[in-house]
Amino acid sequence: MRYIFIFLLLLQIALFSSPSALGQRVLRPAVARQDTPVVASQDTLNIGAPKGDIETTIKYSARDSIQFEVDRKVVHLYGDAKIDYGDMKLEAAYIEINYETNTLLATTLTDSTGKEVGTPVFAQGQENYAAKRITYNYKTRKGRIAEVVTQQGEGYIHSEVVKRNEENEFFGLHNKYTTCNLEHPHFYINAGKIKAIPNDKVMSGPFNLVIGDIPTPLGFMFGLFPTPKDRRSSGVIVPSYGENTRGFFLNNGGYYFAWNDYIGTKLTGDIYSLGGYNVDLSNDYVKRYAYRGNFRFTYDFLKNDEADIEASRSTDNIFDDLPPTQRTFWIYWTHNPVTKPGRGSFSASVNAGSQLHQRVNYNGTAQYLSPTFNSYVSYQKTIPNSPFSYTIKASQGQSTQTGTMNFVLPDLNFSMSQVSISDLLSSQPATNTNWYDKFTLTYNVRASNTISNIQPARTTSSFPVLESSPADTIDVNFSNLQRLWDSGQKSAIHTFGIGLGNYKVLKYLNFSPSVSYSETWVDEKYKFTFNPDSQRVDVDTTGFGRVYQYSAGASLNTTIYGTVYVKGEKVEAIRHLMRPSIGYSYRPDFGDERFGFYQRTLVGADPSTNLPQYRDLGRFRTGLPSTGLSSSLNFSVANSLEMKVKSENDSTENKFEKVSLIDNLQISSSYNFAADSLKLSQIQLSMYTKLFKMINLNFSSSFNPYQTDSLGSSIDKYIFNPQKLKLARLTNANLNLTASLSPEAFRSGSAATPATPPANLPSLSPDQAPLGLPQYVDFKIPWTLNLSYTFYYTRGFGATSSSNLTQTIGIDGSLNITDKWKVTYTSTYDISNQNISYANVQIYRDLHCWDMSIGWIPFGQLRGYNLTINARSSLLQDLKLTKRSNSVYGY
């Protein structure tokens, strides 16, 4: 009786609905009807939620008509039919609601041309299904779907029949699983049965890979494809295979542990048939609004017994001079905080390990060629409402070529930003009434302990100091920690920045006086004594020492404008801007005995004259100021040249724009009044400008104002001779021209800038990308061209000296042959040696759901080629084919 009452109520509401759609042609299947069709224009009815099987309000609508069969308890919806029931939504050309069986039926309809329209689309939560026929029980929340395409994560499942249970899981029969989003995919995994758990995983029985509708024997007895909502899930990492100098290998295989939303660990390894292996542990972590980082540890065991036999055939192989076995490790750690005002921040960048590790585990040109690696960990904080800040830091640097390791541990820094002297002397703000109101002060102190594992040699080649000894290397291990600490150079450097303000002189001149002072505290101070018995210099350590230095100066500068009005058809005027500057600086001779930084000591007799020989020996290991009095006059002139021309973009009005001819042309030098000879320093001439708004020109050069002797040494005699137009002698010159061209550059009339990659570009993950390839390819830019020319010249003087000229040309860019084919190229040609120093060609093919890349390096130690074809989706990143040939590895 409850259902009869509901349908009678619905019928009464329908009778009072708008009859505007009457007379329209309705497409519907052949179904038995006992009532009169009630048609409504986009009719919408709400059924309240009575007590029973219906849990909430069912909202439904249709564009063409809504029909009721009261006795069968069925409602028919025609044309853009829509159902909204809680979190479930259903759209189709035709929908049937059966209140007797609590089911929904959705199908397509055939239009007048015989084409099926209105494919049913079922959505529940974040899950969407598109199929030709959908049956769904809204009470049990189970369903049956025919010819369905559903998306699970990055993948798409095409199924003939799908059943869906109350737990939102569905089971498919005769399935195609793919990451290609086309109706007819380019490739798919063919599986008879599939079970999908939304936001978790897709599981299948026996499957095989089908490419271009051609079945392949590639497959397995079961399949497991993670489809997590947050794209983080634990799972197996399938290794790649191949062969190189270390033998046949399985590479980068292991397991990923997704502990939670904040921490993930990847444990992978390599194994080689000749006995070597590699273990890699990488841990990513993140805390929102606080920090993120990565810690990675790599251990490698190189077994090189049989590899040396094959490697000896090629002198290019990097393993030629390695021992039969080699154990290496490397640590990477990056920690990046989110800076917040008033709070300290901890950051780290660690890149350190065994000397040969980067060479043995070469995975990129930059890594192989890098001679040094640097690391640090630091904590930094600015004290709120004060000018003070401090940093606590530890750093390390190492050379992979020499094995030298340097540590700065600890490294403490305390700074005071610029403050006014008036603020320090008075609590009232500066009023510019006192003579010292413009004076400012900055302060910085750095206390550090510098440690090196290389102890320099003591030599007696120049004069005898102590006993001679060779250089010594301290092994970096726990047993030598005390020895390393004792060998460190401990110091504290205090730097004061004193600003004396800027002043106007004669209305147009800017006068700026300056004073600087610094002081260094060291842990050792030396005293030298000549021992006549041993004819050597004895050195005594007296403990703490203090070294300081200071200087003073002033500068005077102004700006001069000059304009020439041309009043031509295109050129309106030319303006010359000149900025002359002259300054004076004074610095005492800190080698004078009154300072006590150097000690004049008898070091023995001169072998040629047998007369006593004296030397000025520094009494401190670090922080020593240079010797010699400096009383220098510094001068420079900077020029720029602009032209005012008629704008080409405005043909109706007389509007002009500025065009830069020379951005900066500068000449500078200095004259030391205190020097006993060669008082004028070398003259520096440099220029920077942009030609045609596309070409950047940088030029720098040095000129020697003095004549030279037969050995090439300067003598105290000027070259300057106005009658012979001799001003100075060129010693070196450097010219660099660069241009970045693209269609956008020609349209805008300015140099091209690198484009930011859109989110939907074809991409290669770092693990997928072959050596030397970028991680994305932009097919939208039709072409780019970057040109560079470098000219460097040094001139020798004297009979034994020779001049040197180096010229190189560089070219790189890209070309879209079609909208799917792209070629990139890079090449450097050495004009001086007439050879190609480096060349690299890359070819990319956009295969819709696949990427193909071909790379070729024809010259040099890295010469070789690589070919990679891989599925674009990161879900199927192990579905790839890679072939490489590289002379470095000898394969």
From TrEMBL:
Domain LPS-assembly protein LptD central: start-end pairs: 202-706
InterPro entries: LptD (IPR050218), LptD_2 (IPR045659)
Keywords: Signal
Keyword Signal set for record: yes
Record-annotated membrane-spanning stretches: none
GO cellular component terms attached to this protein's record: cell outer membrane; transporter complex
Extent of the signal sequence: 1-23
Protein name: LPS-assembly protein LptD central domain-containing protein
Source species of the chain: Pontibacter oryzae
Lineage: Bacteria, Pseudomonadati, Bacteroidota, Cytophagia, Cytophagales
